């Protein structure tokens, strides 16, 4: 089987080597398309591929149409909103993610961004400490849980909202489950955001929720920019000069936010959540292993387009 490794932002050399070794041992061939700059390059490369590994690369309907032999797409990471699930399903293509492989890297970044904002982006002046503050976790999945556990180590009080996770599962971690999003934001000095971008969540975090946060509240977004109501964010930052926003996914209006609010806002230069050597290798090897297992046994454990 031909496995296309299509990564505009390439894997680390160690990850690529591991992917190739896993595939070769199972009798498959890996073809690499890295740092491509033209969409047509992807369309051409996928034309005879039977499996596809991607990172943040977009698998849209035109990619699916150009890949008549494609049987499986694996997104090396947790989020998969860069894949057109409907188009894949229509052609019988299995789509998987690699949940948990990047989680620790993202969780550490979230905590680091809290410290960074608490200390005024390390600029001169008096900052604050995380100890004793309340952290709200918005979505208690793999990343959210790890953020909660790290925050407990800083002496933070942790609460969480997730309608799909019961209280008992959170209590094991010493985390209080709250019943509503409104309660989460109104009680949290910091909110760590981990919701996916779906029709229900897009633009759902805006002036009303952020305006309910206590004085000095900070929102940390390592999820998706699409879940933020940018107009509402700008409005509440203007109305509440005590609020702060840090994100790993720059807003469409990030330049304007930076100019208007200075060190009260921060965005990484490029999405950095999974940018650690360990996460890079973990996700790549998991993707290759899942593809090999799929072809050998039909295992679809991590399928997301059922």
Describe the structure.
The chain contains 12 helices and 12 strands. It is an alpha/beta fold and 306 residues long. The strands form 2 sheets. A 7-stranded parallel β-sheet has the order 8-7-6-9-10-11-12, with helices on both faces. Helix 7 links the parallel strand 7 and strand 8. It starts with a strand and ends in a 9-residue tail after the last helix.
Structure summary:
The chain is α/β, with parallel strands linked by helices and 306 residues long.
List keywords for this structure.
306 residues; alpha/beta; Rossmann fold; 2 domains; five-stranded parallel sheet
- Radius of gyration equals 21 Å
Q: How many separate helices?
A: 12
Q: Specify the helix fraction band.
A: 25-40%
Q: What is the CA-CA span between the terminal residues?
A: 23 Å
SSE arrangement, N to C: EHEHEHEHEHEHEHEHEHEHEHEH
Number of domains: 2
